[in-house]
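User: Sequence in, structure out. Go.
Assistant: Echoing your sequence, followed by the structure tokens.
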Amino acid sequence: MKLAIISDIHGNYDAFQEVLTDIDRCKVDQIISLGDNIGYGPEPDRVVQKLIELDIPSVLGNHELALKNEKFLNWFNPVARKSLLKTRDLLSDSSIAFVKSLKSYLSIDGCRCVHGFPPDSPLIYMFQPSEKRKKKVFDEIGERICFIGHTHTLEIMGYDGERIESGDLPKGLTRLEPEKKYIVNIGSVGQPRDDSNEAKYVIWDTSADTIEVRFVPYEVAVVVRKIKDAGLPEEHADRLW
């Protein structure tokens, strides 16, 4: 089975559409979103409606959490909070209902899907837990692989029962070791924060036991203009470059 795992679309419908086209060419069996489908970007409603249309399951991201429970708005910096409040105005009632229905994790086809860090946090970043805490999480979760987003970067963490090894997840194919458990940070579709402004996502081939990182170009300038025209913070437009 081939699973396409996407994350952090952040209202960037142009990037999302190009990723969907690329996924279609790759002939995957299912698509899963790791949340933060909204926030920062100019077309959150189009993104959410496409998720609904294609029946793509998603977990709760920190941006969705803040719309689901407004007390979490204070978790964000002032610029991100301003963007979220504007995002709320851009969402239809059905999209808001979808956002509020999301759960903090999914277990699908032998993998766990979480936005931030397992077992189920939409807020904790991969770099925050101690080594001891990470080992405890590896030992406690039943799934061999956990896919996460949140940092908008590509990383992989492997655990053999004693030692954790961490590093960047490179473009292209990475073959997994059958005796290890993994936490895989899959980057971002709509707001990448690495050396490339292309949209990122991964394909997990369960039969070959590989993870393929895909880089997908899209018209960044078009989205930059849409963000500014929508009255969203320009910082989130400029960061796309």
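User: And one key feature?
Assistant: The mean pLDDT is 96.
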